[in-house]
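Reopening this one. Same input as before:
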Amino acid sequence: MKKLSKELIERVHRIKLVLTDCDGVLTDGGVYYSKAGEEMKLFSVRDGMGVERLRRLVNIDTGIVTGESSEIVRRRVEKLGIKEYHPGSTDKYSVLKGIIRNKKLSAEEIAYIGDDSNDMEIMRQSGLSACPADAFRPVREISHLIMENKGGNGAFREFAEIIIYYKKGQYEHTKECTAWGSHYW
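Same output, byte for byte:
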């Protein structure tokens, strides 16, 4: 297990909103088609629980900023009770600026998890950035945190649990100040 540096712990403490990309973070990045041509995506229920736990345990909402405009994603957003939803976002940094303005937040109060080149600018501008283990290499190189899990396989949940863990100050009660591990589940 890895420890977070003092600087990263301070970044976590400032977070008031967690934003995420969809494909490649909340899904495995695959798009599936049936014989009827219906598009399908696989979402992890564990990631959904991460959204709920952020809201319930540390009063942090989650938003989705995605280049995709999909009925499937809209239904997932609705099911999870996500209010901050920005489909069809080709310029994610502009979306971030709008969220900052509308919610009266600073960039330092926003965390973002993404996996590909279209996420890089919003990640650079966010107070805390993360990516799944299987993210595009340049994204991994600029991320504050690289998750052990892949997109669609618990990467968002892992990020959520790190934020919850440090926001609640639980690390102060552990000898090693570990960032995350099986004891969080």
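So the earlier flakiness isn't reproducible anymore. For the record, The radius of gyration is 16 Å.
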